[in-house]
Design brief:
The structure is a single chain. By secondary structure, the chain is of the alpha+beta class. The chain folds into three domains: 8-126, no CATH class; 127-177; 183-290, Immunoglobulin-like (Sandwich). It is built from five helices and nine strands. A nine-stranded antiparallel sheet has the order 1-3-4-7-6-5-8-9-2. Helix 1 (8-15) runs parallel beside helix 3 (35-50) and helix 2 crosses helix 3. The longest helix is centred in the middle third of the chain and has 68 residues, at 110-177. Residues 88-99 and 105-109 have low confidence and may be disordered.
């Protein structure tokens, strides 16, 4: 019958093969009937299986090794002295039939030395494995965050473009469905190089929104843009839209948003800005149209 006493103190040495035959058999018999000790043994075996994959092992200093050997030699000398005493006692006392031997666990066997070395190295190994796992998780999570952040920025930019296109379609639909008269006014090129391009302004009376429809206008290298401006009584002071052109036929459309109804401005013009966000024109107008 297996022993009911737990063998948790022997499990670590058991998984490392550091028990003698009697202790090894005792643990195996106990594990058959004890679920708790069996689970502890399985956990220790998984830990031992990770040892070959740990980082560079800790190197024992040479003086420590020699110190251990000296200590073992001292134990052997002391053990020999005890054996002599036991043998002497057997001779003096006629009733003694044999020499008393120390228990097996007290003998300085090779397994006990292996257990001592394991006791020194296992905590360092476990700590190293834990740090490696944590570092790997941090690196993975950081990379995932960067990828998610980039994908989110791309999605937001695409949504902004789609919203701009949707607003333009809704504005054009509003123009076509309004009972008021929709006006389509062609732009006049202010520079001869753009004489072949056709641009028109679509607006309705008392509407602060409008459209610029372009054809034959070459796309610009980024970040340069075709900027649409509104001129009031004090000059060109209101950026109201950005015209972008795409496709083989160089078509484009710009949604205009004025601070006042577009038909109340004196003139609408288009120039080339090297980047978006300009508050005042930085180059001459290449297209103009009186409103």
């Amino acid at each position: 019958m297996a022993s009911t006493a737990h063998v948790d103190e022997l499990i670590a040495a058991y998984t490392l093969g550091a028990l003698n035959a009697t202790e090894h058999q005792q643990v195996e018999q106990h594990l058959i009937s004890c679920r708790l000790c069996a689970e502890m043994t399985a956990e220790e075996e998984r830990l031992v299986a990770l040892l070959p994959y740990a980082a560079t092992p800790y190197t024992v200093p040479p003086d420590l090794k020699q110190s251990i050997f000296n200590q073992l030699e001292g134990e052997q000398v002391e053990q020999h002295s005890n054996n002599v005493k036991y043998a002497g006692a057997a001779i003096v006392e006629p009733s003694a039939q044999h020499t008393m031997e120390p228990p097996a666990w007290a003998l300085p066997t090779r397994q006990s030395r292996l257990l001592r070395v394991a006791a020194l190295t296992i905590p360092w190994t476990v700590a190293m494995i834990s740090w490696v796992v944590v570092a790997a998780l941090l690196a993975y999570s950081h990379g995932q965050s960067d990828r998610l952040r980039t994908a989110q920025q791309d999605d937001l930019a695409q949504m902004a473009v789609l919203n701009q296109q949707l607003l333009g379609m809704q504005t054009l639909q509003g123009f076509l469905s309004t009972p008021k008269t929709v006006q389509v006014i062609p732009f006049a090129p202010a520079v001869g190089a753009y004489a072949g391009a056709g641009l028109s302004l679509v607006l309705a009376p008392h509407y602060a929104h409008g459209l610029v429809v372009a054809r034959g206008l070459k796309p610009l290298a980024q970040p340069a843009v075709y900027q649409v401006w509104a001129k009031s009584s004090v000059g060109w002071n209101a950026p109201i839209g950005v015209l972008t052109t795409t496709g083989s036929q160089e078509q484009g459309v710009a949604l205009l948003v004025g601070q006042i109804p577009l038909d109340q401005y004196r003139m609408i013009g288009i120039n080339i800005e090297q980047t978006t966000g300009a508050k005042l024109p930085t180059s001459p107008m290449i297209f103009t149209i009186p409103v």
